[in-house]
Write a structure and sequence with these properties.
This protein has helices spanning 41-49, 53-60, 81-98, and strands at residues 2-5, 10-16, 22-29, 34-40. The chain is of the alpha+beta class and 100 residues long. The protein has one domain. A hairpin with a 4-residue loop joins strand 3 and strand 4. The longest helix is centred in the last third of the chain and has 18 residues, at 81-98.
Length: 100
Amino acid sequence: MRCYWDEEDIWFYFEVDGEGWVLRQVELEGPELTPVAAASLAEWQRACDAGRLDEYDSRFGSTAELPVSEWEGHDPEELTSEEFEEVWGPARRRIASRHR
């Protein structure tokens, strides 16, 4: 799913599980749709367990902390998994290349 936050001019893209928890999240900012986050909950948890959470957050960001059903003020648009992957792959590569 995706939604737009006009106050910050950011598009949010989410991959969610069956209970509405965000598994992966991409944030694209401004008219150029510059990737500012491309975070995976599983990677975030591994970084936390390894004591490297600050490093992960500064590089990839984090995922939403509440399930989608508890969000207020968002009207997400449904996406297919293919549509999410089309955004995830390029955003992730771009962020990774900036932080080498």
